[in-house]
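Work Package 3 (structural annotation) set out to generate three-dimensional models for the target panel prioritized at the project kickoff. During this period the team completed the workflow that converts sequence records into discrete structure tokens, so that structures can be stored uniformly alongside our sequence database. As a representative example, we reproduce one entry of 276 residues exactly as it appears in the project archive.
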Amino acid sequence: KKDMEDLEKRKTIESFTLMDDIFMRLVFEEKSCTEYVLQVLMNKKSLKVKKQYVQKDLPNLYGHSLLLDCFCEDDQGNLYNIEIQNTSKDAGPKRARYHAALLDIHYLGKGEDFTHLPESYIIFITDKDIFKAKKQLYHIERKIEEIGADFQDGSHILYFNTDCKEDNALGNLAKDFHRENPEEMQSKILSKRVALLKSRRLDKKGEQKMNLVLEQYRQKAFREGIEEGMEKGVESGKQRMALLMGILAEKGRVEDIKKAAGDKLYLESLLSEFGL
């Protein structure tokens, strides 16, 4: 049984990509990785990350709080919030607006003049081209319509479409975000970090972090699997799906949960396997 669990664990680890937000956060704990990604997205090789926080909590006493995937500040005082968004629902314009608003609330001190607000960049890295214009990078800026000029409020929103993989720096980065094998990555910085996290050479602290990632990933896949089943099935189907997801999660078969969500025949084979 332990050998099977270890095999499933290894398969899950090997399947991780940077588009898995939980794994991405662990990769971005290495500041050089965050810095490299920002240098490519901002087309600014001189950009240096001064400080950063992974899973930064932005509380809101009066409403919806946020847990940021990666928040950082460069050596010029500009702020960046990098988020992995794999569905159009989670990458909507109003979500980006809210991220920008809450960032401003937390980074203007009491009594400070509004001119002290730093330049801020909300960056959504998306699995699909949610604007369907076949662009690699979308820049959202406010405009003064009557004169066609920038509003210059210092708030910027970017969408990085990783579905567009052209033969350039952005395209190479997009490919790297989807690659499971670190040896196939174009970026040596990202490749080195991913290879270490996926290797068996982690120290005790690193192994503990990876085990936490696996547990978070299992719980997320479990929740998403149940939600998927509830959307597709009638009441009896919901119960069968919930039972199946519980069994798969207990056995650590995360890849089966992911595959079953999008493959009806595979789902039926799993239900049959467990007599559901």
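The chain has ten helices and eight strands.
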